[in-house]
Amino acid sequence: MKNLYIFFSILLFSSSCSMIEESIDSLYKEGRSSEYIVKENDTLWSIAIKNNTTPQKIAIRNSLKKPYVIFPGQVLLLSNLNRVNINQTIEPEWSLPTSSSIKRDKEGKFWLIFNGDLGDSVYAVEEGKVVLSGSVLPGYGNFIMIDHGNDYLSLYAHCDELFIKKGDLVSKNQLIASIGSSETNIPKLKFQIRKDGIPINIDNIKF
């Protein structure tokens, strides 16, 4: 009986991981225009997400230099981005997804566990677009996945309340959820960052 339970647990976990991979593979399927007119409060990250490309490609295509200042009414070229030779990078500067006072633990190499109290705030670690929100992956409870552009994703599992929905654009440090115990025995936030669909070793994540 115990072996049967272990078998089904492994099967469920493998299925959930597969669903995460399928969700990632379904991103960036829409086309884009050849030009984009910058709007109030736009950033390179938000423009990249809206147009299914990366911030550094937009910056290089339009000869933007650090600190990559853009302004409302500015016209950005988005054509031929696939031909852009990337020789510079714009790496995200992650913020903590919870209060700095909440204890952190590791679960394997790729998950951070924040052992907070029920209802503690959960924040977006960088601006981006919500691509999953809800009880959508078995074993992860109320779950959020945010696309940050440049092939970066952040994942938030076992939440209680969710304050954003699929398709929403979120800003860095925006309140997106509260810590919960959905599909787990104690309140906690299970957190992960992925690059190119692959989990990043938590020892390499800098907050």
* Arithmetic mean of pLDDT: 82
Order of helices and strands: HEHHEEEEEEEEEEE
Report strand %. 25-35%
Oligomer: single chain
Determine and state the CATH class of the largest domain: Mainly Beta
Structural class: alpha+beta
Number of helices: 3
Distance between the termini: 44 Å
Largest sheet entry: 10 strands, antiparallel
What is the gyration radius calculated from CA atoms? 18 Å
What is the helix content?
10-25%
Number of strands: 12
CATH superfamily of the largest domain: Glucose Permease (Domain IIA)
Number of domains: 2
Mind telling me which CATH architecture of the largest domain this is?
A: Distorted Sandwich
Shape: elongated
Q: Could you please say which CATH topology of the largest domain applies here?
A: Glucose Permease (Domain IIA)
Residue stretches low in confidence (pLDDT < 50, at least 5 long) are 4-13, 26-31
GO molecular function, one term: metalloendopeptidase activity
InterPro entries: Cell_wall_metabolism_enzyme, Dup_hybrid_motif, LysM, LysM_dom_sf, M23ase_b-sheet_dom
Pfam families: LysM, Peptidase_M23
Protein name: LysM peptidoglycan-binding domain-containing protein
